[in-house]
Amino acid sequence: MNFTNCTAETISNKSKTVTEKMLISITLAVITTLTTLLNSAVIIAICTTKKLHQPANYLICSLAVTDFLVAILVMPLSIAYIVMDSWSFGYVICEIWLSVDMTCCTCSILHLCVIALDRYWAITDAIEYARKRTVKRAGMMILTVWAISIFISLPPLFWRNHNNISIQNSCIIQHDHVVYTIYSTFGAFYIPLTLILILYYRIYYAAKSLYQKRGSSRHLSNRSNDSQNSFAHCKLTQTFCVSEFSTSDPTMEFEKINACVRTPPPYDNDIDMAGDRQQQISSSRERKAARILGLILGAFMISWLPFFIKELVVGLHLCTVSPEVADFLTWLGYVNSLINPLLYTSFNDDFKIAFKRLIRCKEHI
């Protein structure tokens, strides 16, 4: 997402050496290729695996499509721009590239927001949301994300000077409008980031509460020899055990379906040991859930937070940064499109099976 005015300054007198250009181009080309392949694999896996045809997976598929577009439409021209130290593709291509860059990167970020929202509803309003979680609803969420991204990204096209381009060999969006700087950075990142943090915080504590209630209710039911109590316990745990919403959801680590009715053990010592064992399992799942959420939030913030801090302070004319720093922070954000398919599918067995099947198919070709 290259909309800083830092690169509008005169290009540094020291041009890159051939070796530097080769190293930069190879590194960025590897990132681009991996991003393309991983997101393609997610798209193909969802499209060809019937078990993955679920509303929650369609959100992940849409995210993969968005990141795929970043990889094939944005990254290659960015590599050429960085390596050549100037823009050589003309004004029209520049306008298209900047618009696609901003729209796709914003859309990718907003997808993470709606995925978090979908998971929050799934774990906090399980029974009701299971009825509402339809393909149509997922489609509406995706359309909303794209519409918001366009509204955030396209306004500069209406006030940009089309006749007098101050620097012919650059392709940047000028930050002449402070209001737009605030509007775009908050709309594309700071508001979604706040929402994601709140949602995943609530998801974690809701899941933790479910674990604790489930563990205690099981322990109590194991102490009862009354079959009616066991049946009542089964009905109770069904309110806590969120039935399979989406097996592509890493937060499903929170919600493993367990057998409700158990034969009571004959000895109290066995009951106490079973209760302690259940507590250990719950604690282990809580720690694993925390690690998963930590990875998701950490990767997102490390990738995009530095870029948007720079965008805000530069857009408000509080400081300037060198073109090299601006390019590095831009590509740090692009890397999020490489990380997303790993984080949002690697914790799921159904995706692992689908990926293995794709690999086997390629080996037979």
UniProtKB/TrEMBL annotation:
Where do the TM regions start and end?
A: 22-46, 58-84, 96-117, 138-158, 178-204, 289-309, 329-347
Identify the SMART domains for this entry. 7TM_GPCR_Srsx
Q: Which InterPro entries match?
A: 5HT_rcpt, GPCR_Rhodpsn, GPCR_Rhodpsn_7TM
Q: Topology with regard to the membrane?
A: Multi-pass membrane protein
- What does the record list as GO biological process? adenylate cyclase-activating adrenergic receptor signaling pathway; adenylate cyclase-inhibiting serotonin receptor signaling pathway; positive regulation of MAPK cascade
Q: Name one GO cellular component term.
A: plasma membrane
Record keywords, A-Z: Cell membrane, Disulfide bond, G-protein coupled receptor, Glycoprotein, Membrane, Receptor, Transducer, Transmembrane, Transmembrane helix
Tell me a Gene Ontology molecular-function term this record carries: Gi/o-coupled serotonin receptor activity
**Per the annotation, which location comes first and is thus the protein's main one?**
membrane
Claim: Disulfide bond is one of the keywords in the record:
yes
- Where is this protein localized, as stated in its record? Cell membrane
- Where in this chain does the record put each G-protein coupled receptors family 1 profile domain? 38-344
Asked if the keyword Membrane belongs to this entry, the reply reads yes
User: Which CDD domains does the UniProt entry name for this protein?
Assistant: 7tmA_5-HT1E (cd15335)
What's this protein's family per the entry? Belongs to the G-protein coupled receptor 1 family.
Checking PANTHER family in the record gives: 5-HYDROXYTRYPTAMINE RECEPTOR 1D, ADRENERGIC RECEPTOR-RELATED G-PROTEIN COUPLED RECEPTOR
Tell me the protein's name: G-protein coupled receptors family 1 profile domain-containing protein
UniProt organism field: Engystomops pustulosus (Tungara frog)
